[in-house]
Amino acid sequence: MKVTPSALTAFCLSSRRRHQLLSTLRAAASNDSTSTDSSQPINPAQAPLAEDRKDWFVDGRDTARRLKIELGLMSGENTASADDGDDGMPSASNERSSRENAMENGRKAALEFLKSFSDDENGKNKTQATEEKSNESLETTIRKRHDQFTLPSRKSHCLTICLVPPPSATAAWERLNDVRRELKDPGFYRWPPHANLLYPFLEPNFDKESEKSKEEQVSEFRKELIVSLTSVAAQCQPFDVEIDTFGTFGDKTRGVLWARPKSNYSSPAADDDDCDEEPLITLQTFLEKHFPTCTDQRKQGSFTPHITLSHYANITDALEAKEQVESKWESVSFHVPEFYLLQRIGDEGQFKILAKIPLGLQEEKEVYFFDEPLAFPAMPGHEDEWVYSERIAMKNRRKINFKRGKKFT
Which residues, given as ranges, of the chain have pLDDT below 50? Predict the structure, then answer.
């Protein structure tokens, strides 16, 4: 990029040309004295002629003009008429005008130089802004990839991420437990009233050759879980759930009766007018994106939120139970401020709270892991005899169905 010289540069160049001109004039005077008659005495006090003064001024002015042309401060066309009077002789007004023009041209040159310098700086700033934007985009991509859980793990049926009515929703707990007890739910002791979001969920796949102990690997695993769960929770606000409809799954070899947890935002500000999806379904979608190996809830192609009420030998029995429940059910609602990571010990153990994840995470909230899994207050402390009998009967049915399936394959 071409940079116009500054006023200081112009001054230095003009000074050098002036010295060169003086040297030329001295040399010319020396030659003139040599060519004259040596017998003619020279009077040092003799004043220079008017013509000498004119030539001196004209030569100096021409030198200044050439300098400005070289610096690009003026055009080389018709420069004589611009600086001279009508008769070609410099006037006093023209002399002042020349000085003023020189100063103005110097000022313009300085401004042009500063402008070009400013343009360079702006260009650098724009380049820097572009680089920062690019880096920010890269950091965003890395962060998104980091939010996706990638530590070595395996799915376990002893872990689930699910919706459960919070302990404060006592009316919902009472109504759901009553109907499950009446329907003789085989999972009454092991499972709280819940809607699975990711089941089975992930447990650490321990590296036996690692220098880290098992406890250290568990700690690292939980820290990464917190990162992903925090990212999900921050994108979902608390919502409300209403239970007033029921459905069934199954065929001639099994049947399931379930309640539909219909969700919506209680606060209009939290509702997204551009999205018709229920918040519970949105939450499950975000979870699957962060834990892409846990897609069991979409085996049928879409996620159907449901709270299991009981299990049956076939779909016919489940449909009969559905009519029975609908005939006397009254709608119940509860607020959902959090969801849970539950864990059980062994197939017969009760699912308890391993971690609770508050929705719409703020600075004062965080994902909290319990040192020891914590039971929900409304859950039974032991497995009653009728629950055990129903559970064993269901297990035997499943064994028979499994053998039949192997026989016909």
Answer: 1-14, 21, 25, 28-29, 32-54, 78-93, 134-145, 273, 406-409
388 Cβ neighbours under 8 A, 6+ residues apart: none
Return d(Cα 209, Cα 337) in angstroms, integer.
41
Nearest to 239 by CA among 293, 305, 298, 178: 305
Three-class DSSP category at 183: coil
C-beta of residue 32 within 8 angstroms of C-beta of residue 89: no
Identity (one letter) of the amino acid at 45?
A: A
pTM beyond 0.85: the answer is no
Specify whether the backbone of 408 is left (phi greater than 0), alpha (psi in -120 to 50) or beta. Answer: alpha
Pairing relation of β-strands 195-198 and 159-163?
Answer: antiparallel
Give 111-159 pLDDT, tens digit per residue. Answer: 665 566 555 555 555 555 555 554 444 344 434 445 688 888 999 999 9
Paired residues of 357 in beta bridges = 339
Contacts of 246 (CB under 8 A, 6+ apart): 257, 258, 259, 260, 309, 322, 325, 326, 329
**Residue-wise pLDDT tens digits, 381-408:** 999 999 999 999 999 999 998 887 744 3
Task: For residue 163, give the DSSP letter.
Answer: E
Q: Rounded distance, CA 178 to CA 180, Å?
A: 6
**Cα distances (Å, whole numbers) of residue 122 to 117, 119, 125, 265, 357:** 9, 5, 5, 48, 47
Taking the C-alpha atoms of residue 395 and residue 389, their distance in angstroms, rounded to an integer, is 10
